[in-house]
Amino acid sequence: MPPSVAISPMKPLLADTEPATLRAADTASARPPKVLVLLAAFNGAKWIREQIQSILLQEGVDVAISVADDGSTDATLAEIAAFEDDGRVTVLKRSHPNGSAAQNFFMLMRQHPADGFDFVALSDQDDIWYAHKLSMACKRIRADNAAGYSSATLASWDDGTTAALKPSGKQNASDFLLEGAGQGCTFVMEAGFYSRARGFFLDHSDLTDGVHFHDWALYALARSWDLHWTLDARVSMIYRQHDDNDTGARGSLGGLVRRFARVRSGWYREQLAAIGALCAAAAPESRMLAAWRSTLSGPRCLRRTWQLIGFCLRGGRRRARDNAVVLLAAIAGWI
After folding, report:
1. pTM value?
2. For the chain, what percent of residues have pLDDT higher than 70?
3. How many domains does the chain have?
């Protein structure tokens, strides 16, 4: 068995009283739900043992973890080896690294069917999950009849600073074309939806090549297929903040600087186009998607700017301040 790590099964800091509907959903099945956790790793030796231990400590579920190492050059594989005698943990070593977390996750999903599992969850390598994280998500998915789920996190910095990060706002008609559903490390999916998304990724591998956020792609597919996605305001995990974060917390200075630089460089426009193409392939009959892609790919002119503004006002990003940033980016010609 893997050695003990100095962490404890933590409870949510901002938990609400559990609704009766969730308690009822929990009794719908006589056995604990089986959850497959897909973990993408790269040079995460400082954190990954604690992350895996927190997943193995999940309460009320039967969990299995598949770790895909994307060619780490530090001691990541040695840290994972501490769990080699635990049959719940398997490791995939890439002979040809994918080069990014998103592409590592896409490959993980293509290689792992959901056979025998009720749910599939995504995990980063550097967080700490509360012991109730997966059971809370499974209950909520069943209660809401949802395809997928994402939750609030507790961002934590090395200096002891913490901040609760909640998923942004309520969904609207087209938010999925401009943003995802919060941190992908909180994502849990119903097995049927995951299998459908996995099949889509297998059949349309070319459409994921330019996608930077695998979690945004999953949310976009669910919404393109008119499936419900639950945004939970309760905290389920500690979201570590450090210099190696891909994006980082929305409220951090580094995260803000990286987001602004990406929008201004045209990177965000490229991501909008990539997600739009993916959604169009998933829902080819959608007039809304066709109109959006036509506007996005049109020549830069005053008419196009007004069309982008109108689209955002009718159903852009979920938070007003985030939508304002998109509107400013459209006026500046960055999207």
Report:
1. 0.87
2. 87
3. 2
